[in-house]
Q: What sequence folds into this?
């Protein structure tokens, strides 16, 4: 009997070893892994990895793991387009996921359309990448919504002398247009509107022009280190206007680079406060971070990555039948709204903007937030 049991156990192990692993669901990503905008991208990806690791540990989707294939685009549109071509044409991913930036998204959209595919989620709120015919499903609200919220706030508190400073790239130009329209809607004109080279590491001249304009507030439109560099030059002055910026400027990076000189900077946000666990999705994110041994308190970008990946996983799990590009598209567009734990997304065939959540925060001392 003992010999029979040993033989059966050996045979069972042999079957297990011979059994083919479930075929993964391949998802493609072009991301900024190197260069000045990498910190934002890596923080965003950290949240994604937390969710996908959890998902795969629990058995994946229908027993299939989700495998994210990622290539570096160094925030160069031509490289992002080449990455999209490789991902869709060679790697045969089911769709593209989690891109970063307006120029990057604009470069990848024609490739996605060529393969009748789409992009799910990404760090952009640009108007040019939104609309029922643009193959991108957005998990965050638009930049126009962010800008209008800030400008309405400024009007409410009586600030009327406003400067607008934007990076001279696709990202900056798009939001600059939204900012000027929002000012006009409130019956105002900027006291100064200028663009700066995002590659310039010490934009002292830009800061001097802002201060000389007599602005009460300056709205800085840039992402990652280019935003940091302009703000660093502003806070170095003995007196400067109140600084406002939007979500992708990155609050965690502001404090990391500027320390307590970041105190008082106001940011619009498109995610719930990442430290307020009264939101079930935030509590889930923080528990996932602790389980993974992550350091620190997390970040808005990390939470956004986690929420984006969770929404994508939910869409995959709602697919009826085999997971294909078309079945996943139907799942996204025709399923009921997703309640992800205090953060709701709803897509329709004529609406690919899933969220209208927005908030305004101010950095306090020690990198904390005052609301």
A:
């Amino acid at each position: 009997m003992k010999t029979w049991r040993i033989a059966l156990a050996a045979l069972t192990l042999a079957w297990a070893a011979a059994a083919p692993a479930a075929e993964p669901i391949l998802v493609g990503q072009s991301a900024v892994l190197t260069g000045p905008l990498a910190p934002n991208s890596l923080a965003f990806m950290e949240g994604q990895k937390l969710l996908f690791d959890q998902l795969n540990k629990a058995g994946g989707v229908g027993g299939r793991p989700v495998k994210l294939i990622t290539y570096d685009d160094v925030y160069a549109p031509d490289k992002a387009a080449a990455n999209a071509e490789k991902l869709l044409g060679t790697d045969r991913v089911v769709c593209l996921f989690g891109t970063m930036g307006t120029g990057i998204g604009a470069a990848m959209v024609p490739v996605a359309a060529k393969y009748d595919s789409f992009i799910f989620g990404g760090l952009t709120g640009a108007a040019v990448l939104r609309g029922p015919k643009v193959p991108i499903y957005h998990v965050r609200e638009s930049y126009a919504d962010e800008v209008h919220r800030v400008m309405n706030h400024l009007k409410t508190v009586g600030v009327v002398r406003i400067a607008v400073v934007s990076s001279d790239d696709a990202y900056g130009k798009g939001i600059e247009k939204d900012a000027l329209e929002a000012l006009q809607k409130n019956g105002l004109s900027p006291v100064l509107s200028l663009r700066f080279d995002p590659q310039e590491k010490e934009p002292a001249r830009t800061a001097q022009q802002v201060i000389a304009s007599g602005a009460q507030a300056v709205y800085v439109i840039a992402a990652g280190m280019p935003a940091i560099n302009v703000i660093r030059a502003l806070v170095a002055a003995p007196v400067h206007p109140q600084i406002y910026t939007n979500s992708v400027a990155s609050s965690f990076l502001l404090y990391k680079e500027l320390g307590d000189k970041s105190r008082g900077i106001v940011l619009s946000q498109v995610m719930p406060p990442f430290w307020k666990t009264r939101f079930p999705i935030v509590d889930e994110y923080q528990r996932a971070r602790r389980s993974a041994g992550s350091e620190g308190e997390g970040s808005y970008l990390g939470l956004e990555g986690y929420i984006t990946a969770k929404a994508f996983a939910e869409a995959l799990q709602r697919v009826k039948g085999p997971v294909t590009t078309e079945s996943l598209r139907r799942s996204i567009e025709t399923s009921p709204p997703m309640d992800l734990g205090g953060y709701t997304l709803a897509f329709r065939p004529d609406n690919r903007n899933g969220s209208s959540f927005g908030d305004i925060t101010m950095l306090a001392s020690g990198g904390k937030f005052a609301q």
Remarks:
- DSSP finds twelve helices and 14 strands in the chain.
- The mean pLDDT is 91.
- The first helix runs from residue 2 to 18.
